[in-house]
Amino acid sequence: MFADPEALYRQTTAASRALHEKAVAVMPGGTTRTTTYFDPYPLYIERGEGCRVWDADGTERIDMLGNYTAMILGHAHPKVVEAIRKQAARGTGFAAANPIEVQLATLLCERVPSLDAVRFCNSGTEATMFAMRLARAFTGRPKIARMEGGYHGTHDYAEVSTHPAVAEAGSPDAPIARPDSMGTPDWALEQTVVLPFNNPDAAEAIIRREAGELAAVILEPIIGAGGVIPATVEFLERLRNVTRELAVLLIFDEVISFRVAPGGAQQLYGVTPDLTTLGKIIGGGLPVAAFGGRADVMELLDPRREPNIAQGGTYNGNPLGMAAGYATMTELTPDVYEDLNRKGARVCEQLTEVFASHGVAVQVNGAGSMLALHFTSAPVVDYRTMAAANKKRTRELFLGLVNHGVLMAPRAMGALSTPMAEPDIQEFIDAVDTVVAEQRPRWESES
Fold first, then answer.
1. β-pairing, 413-415 with 370-374?
2. Which of 280, 337, 382, 424 is catalytic?
3. Global pTM?
4. What is the mean pLDDT of residues 82-92?
5. Which of 71, 272, 287, 343 has the most C-beta neighbours closer than 10 Å?
6. Active site annotation includes 253
C-alpha cells in the first residue's frame, strides 16, 4: 500500500477545508488568486514569522515559497513592520506625491543598471502592461515579442503562450502564438510574436523577419514561474545586439529575478535592457511594482510634455507600500545577497544528492536563492523541456511536503529567505528525503 499524500492532507487540514467550504460560496474556487488554489482545496494561512507560517489548524511549516518569492526578508521582519507602523500612523494614501516614493525611486535607479527613471504601480501585470505600451508608443510599431513559457502577468498582451499545449504550439524553432485563457482577444495573438527561449539562432531569425512591426522583445532573463530557467549569456547578448541593431526595445521582466543580485539579473549577466519591470521584493510584502529604463523612453510619461502617456492609479506610489519597500531594499546589502545566493546553491546541491540517492530522475533548476524541481531526466532549458516533466509526481511531492511541514509552490518552485538558518535548511532537505522515500515505491510501480 503506497502512502497517499492527499488522504493525509485531508485528515490534517480540517480548518482549511471548512474555510474553503465557506469560501466557495463567495469566491470562485474559494480563493481570489488562482495560483493559491490546488486540489483538493487550498491551504489557508493565518500568520507568518521569519521563515515559518501557521495555517488555520495551527500547523507550523517552513515557508519555502515566500509568497511566490516576494518575501525575501521572511514574514513580519521587525524593520519592515516598524516602517509600516510609522507610516500607517501618518496616513496610508494621499492624492499627492510623497517623499518616500522619491527615496525608493532613487534607490532603485542607483542599483539597477537600466534605470534612468522609474514609475511605480501595484502589480507586475501593470508594470509589464505599461512597459509594452511605452515600447509601442516610442517605436510606433504594434507588435511585442515574448518567450514561449515566460510569464508577464494577466493582461491581454501577456496572456499568450505562457503554458500552451505543446501539440498545438508549432515547431520548437518557430512557436505559434496560443491563447492562455478564454477571453484572450484575437488581436493579442496577431500582435504577439513568440520566440523560443535559449535558442539564439531561431530567436534572431524571427526577430529579423518581424522587425518592421516589432516594438519590443520582453523576457524574463531567468524564467521564474515557468520553472526557474536561467537564460544563457549567449542568448541574452544575441537579443541585446539584434534589438539594438533593429531599433527594437529590449525589456527585462525582473519582477522575480530581481532577487538574484542588487541590480537584478541584468547586473549578473552584464546585459542592460532598454526597459525593466520590477515587483515582488520591492514592496516589502505590500502590492508595489515598477517599470523604468532609458530616459528618452520614459520621457513619454512626463506630464510636462505634449503629447504624453497618462498613467493613473489611486495606489501608485502609496506611502505605505513605499515605506515597506524602502525598508526592505535598504536591508538587502550586497553581503546579504551573497549569503542568500550561497545558501541557494548549497540547497540545490543537497537536493540533487537526495534524489540521486533514491534513484529518482529530477532536474534541480536553481538561480540565486530560487529553485524548482522537475521530474525528468533531460535538462530543463526552455518551455518544451519543462512541459515534458512528470506533473503527477510534482503534485505528490508538493502534497507530501505540505504534510511534512514544508510549503512550496504546487509546481515545486521555491525560494529562500534571509531568516533561514542551517537548521531550517536541513529540515527542508530532510522533509524532501522523507517524502521521496515514501513516494518512490509508487513512482517505481508506475514506471
1. antiparallel
2. 280
3. 0.97
4. 97
5. 71
6. yes
